[in-house]
Design goal:
mainly beta, 5-stranded antiparallel sheet, signal
Length: 209
């Protein structure tokens, strides 16, 4: 009897404490859904190249991007590692403005410094996602620029206007543009689509999606 009474009291105390703790928990509100606030001119892509490097464990993506008419072009370039001369997924990579007034200047991207903070206004970055790495059940699979196809690849380009506003474009690259060329040791994957094209771009405000 005494033992059962003690157990009952302990249960009541535990329940009361749990109730107090739960009532003090503050559940954060959900992140605001990004909102398309306006259409903008298409991004212009030129000199697009993507391929696995022959006799190497590297692959690369390279192109020039003009985010709007009259803007200074940027050079977007990234190198990935591959075991079979194939293209691989490239994470977010900052692009570098091209000095169009100095023909001797290099457009090779460099690591941003304190004086060129990559989080500042009007910076451009891109990513390249192979279809085999796409999760069709992820939140990014739906929406205007959803990535849901598990073949080919996706190129995503973002111009960060400010902390909450960005111009964004996503395009699916069909698998038939990503065939193999060469034979034996010279076989490698190459993008064979157009080198110049436009990307439908929209302006978003709100949290990243």
């Amino acid at each position: 009897m005494i033992l059962s009474g003690i157990m009952a009291i302990a249960g009541l105390v535990t329940s009361a404490v749990a109730g107090v703790v739960t009532s003090n928990i503050k559940v954060p509100p959900p992140n605001p859904i990004p909102v398309v606030i306006q259409g903008i001119p298409n991004f212009s892509v030129s000199k697009f190249e993507a391929q696995g490097v022959v006799l190497s464990d590297r692959n690369y993506i390279s192109f020039h991007l003009t985010p709007y008419p009259g803007a200074t072009p940027t050079h977007c370039f990234a190198i990935g590692t591959t075991a079979a001369h194939m293209l691989t997924t490239i994470p977010q990579t900052w692009c570098t403005p091209i000095n169009t007034t100095d023909p001797s200047s290099s457009s090779t991207p460099s690591t941003p410094t304190a004086s060129s903070d990559p989080t500042s206004n009007s910076r451009v970055w891109f990513s390249w996602t192979m279809g085999e790495d796409v999760d069709p059940t992820a939140p990014t699979a739906s929406g205007i620029f959803g990535m849901a196809q598990t073949t080919g690849a996706y190129i995503k380009v973002v111009r960060q206007v400010d902390e909450r506003t960005r111009d964004e474009a996503v395009r699916h690259v069909p698998a038939w543009y990503l065939g193999r060329q060469g034979e034996g040791m010279l076989e490698h994957q190459v993008f064979s689509g157009p080198s110049n094209f436009s990307l439908l771009a929209l302006r978003f405000t709100g949290e990243e999606h």
